[in-house]
Amino acid sequence: xxxxxxxxxxxxxxxxxxxxxxxxxxxxxxxxxxxxxxxxxxxxxxxxxxxxxxxxxxxxxxxxxxxxxxxxxxxxxxxxxxxxxxxxxxxxxxxxxxxxxxxxxxxxxxxxxxxxxxxxxxxxxxxxxxxxxxxxxxxxxxxxxxxxxxxxxxxxxxxxxxxxxxxxxxxxxxxxxxxxxxxxxxxxxxxxxxxxxxxxxxxxxxxxxxxxxxxxxxxxxxxxxxxxxxxxxxxxxxxxxxxxxxxxxxxxxxxxxxxxxxxxxxxxxxxxxx
Length: 274
Ligand SMILES: [Zn+2]
Known about the structure:
Phosphate binds at residues 19, 59-60, 92-93, 191. The chain is an alpha/beta fold. It is built from five helices and 13 strands. Helix 2 packs across helix 5 (227-251). The radius of gyration is 18 Å and the shape is globular. Bound molecules: zinc ion.
């Protein structure tokens, strides 16, 4: 695999770790990548896992300094692509909008509903109008691999469902939470958008791995969700989430035959992609 001094060591698979998921690979080389959108959340850790070259970035920074609405999403995806990454795994902590999907549930949603506002959510701000298809926001091959790996590991996942992404950083009110559930949405998080659409705009594969840490406010009887609870449940499950991410990486196809690489076909792109 080629390396270049300016771009650092090449990687093919990227992992964006969420709250509580601050490190992943052993024996890494840390790469500082500059992008037209500023620096990513942290230097990118590049190493090898299961014979694949992997790049890891903690979404919130390793000291959790970026709240969900301030994460440099564009820089993160751009930096990963500039290192050669074409498939991205995105573990995150989410709330559940369904009582039967309790803490510790693993879900691989197939839909997303965006309730964020004011975030930079496109690379194509000027020069040309670029309208990517987002009807199916996640990579079908990545989802299949994630669901299969989880089943093999004995962590029976929820295959499908809708992740609603809220602006945060506050959690939902009970009314909001009941409204989301009444739409048929199953999970609630704060970072899934614009991350997924930015990946699509760079023709990357993007696969969410959602760990349920709590029942959202309108779903449970108690005090409502707290950050302590989220981090406690995440801490209890981080070992198997890491192991699952490693299994998925080992199993992801080397050649992409999914539609993601063709996301920009036939469009005039006003940027040169890294
Ligand atoms: Zn794909």
